[in-house]
Amino acid sequence: PVIAESAFVHPSALFKEENRTVVSLPIQNASSNKEPHSQTVIRCRYRLVRIGELLLLFDQATPEWQDAAMAKLFFADIYFALFNKKYEYWIDMQFDWPPLKNFPNANDKAVIQQSLTMFVEAQITQPPCKWVLLFGESSAKYLLDTPLPIGDTHFFAELPVLMLDSYQQYWLSPHKKVLL
After folding, report:
1. What is the pLDDT of residues 4-55, one digit of tens each?
2. What is the CB-side half-sphere exposure of residue 28 using CA atoms within 13 A?
3. How far apart are CA 174 and CA 180, in angstroms?
4. Backbone angles phi, psi at 177, to 5 degrees
5. In what order do the strands lie in the sheet with 131-135?
6. 38: which residues sit within 8 A by CB, 6+ positions away?
7. How far apart are CA 128 and CA 114, in angstroms?
């Protein structure tokens, strides 16, 4: 099996509605004698957590939290601080790049950005989201057109985006949790 040469990926192919979502793209059968690319492939993993009207985005090397219960409490506290209420639902998602081994456009930054943008836009539309928090500078690498300094805000799909320190920094420095 060979992956289709198209760089465009329809949003419906990027996720499944479940408690945890891993990005997967459809494979199409085609005959080809092309050899796989021998160059280094760009790899990234983003963790997305949708808590009510809030979307959190992390650049995360592993698919699991070190302490899931503490992370959930921390995010619930952030939600309460922003909206002065408890969250109604929690959805945990993951975006892996490249989506498949030997993906033909795995090193094309425009394709990565387009795929991640479509995936995030699908997560913030239904139900409507009010804020996006990016944890760590690398979380914005393929989502925003320009780097965003820590503490600055930007707009993505007409929503305010706040750039924060990496998730690990808030665990290492309890005073940062208070400042957040």
Report:
1. 333 434 343 433 334 444 444 333 333 344 444 456 778 888 989 999 999 9
2. 9
3. 10
4. -60, -40
5. 20-22, 90-97, 44-51, 54-59, 131-135, 159-164, 153-156
6. none
7. 21
* Residues 6+ positions from 131 with CB-CB distance below 8 Å: 53, 54, 55, 82, 159, 160, 161, 162
Angle (CA) 51-138-47 rounded to 5° is: 30
pTM: 0.73
Print the SS3 string covering 91-133: EEEEEEECCCCCCCCCCCHHHHHHHHHHHHHHHHHCCCCCEEE
Distance between CA atoms of residues 79 and 131, nearest Å:
10
